[in-house]
Amino acid sequence: xxxxxxxxxxIAEQLLPAAQVVIGRAAPLRDxxxxxxxxxxxxxxxxxxxxxxxxxxxxxxxxxxxxxxAEGSAQAAxxxxxxxxxxxxxxxxxxxxxxxxxxxxxxxxxARAAAAEMVRIAAPRTRIVLSAWLxxxxxxxxxxxRRDATAAAGVSGGPVPxxxxxxxxxxxxxxxxxxxxxxxDEQLAFNASSAEEFLDTELRVHPGWIAAxxxxxxxxxxxxxxxxxLEIFLTANEDSTGFRVTSRYVxxxxxxx
Length: 257
Description:
Layout: H1 8-26, E1 33-37, H2 43-50, E2 54-59, H3 62-75, E3 79-83, E4 96-102, H4 111-121, E5 122-133, H5 137-152, H6 167-174, E6 180-192, H7 195-205, H8 207-216, H9 222-236, E7 243-255
């Protein structure tokens, strides 16, 4: 998936409440160095800077970094944004007081390498706070429809995603490095004027949907996928006068020392 395409900033706006939860859990102090892995448009990094922390955001998508940098400049935030991958962070050893990731590191192709990098940059007594979706609910079901359709068209979705939502899987990543693990359940509501408006916006701005459309539209298969996705959203709609679906996620806190 190319995160430079589309308008991920629209998605980031919807994820801001989850970033607030993550930063609240991480509780960065003034002058602490906070590293936001897979920062996207900088939600978490900028929230940390608002608290007086020194923030560094790292992301593989230069366009999103440009959006984050512009917002940081507008806020006069103590934040910088660097191009980099979760498995190869452009930071020195033991330089982060807090490491966070809001639905970012969960897309890393190599979960163990990404975890090892977060540990490498972590100073003594660092806390690492991450959010990860639970594989359930309407949004997950729709993503499954998209994945199955592109796979049927001969486009691989890549390796099986790591179970970032699972306590034992996370413990397996961090416990060997001396970290204890805590998980808490959270939820995030997605709202729109209608299911159709929500879906069509996703189809237009989300990098995952843009990639899927490039595969499915030439095969005249996109309309069927849209129809099935809309059916799922209409069934799951929680708002009789508009549209709302709620997705559950976990916040993982890893501490050592």
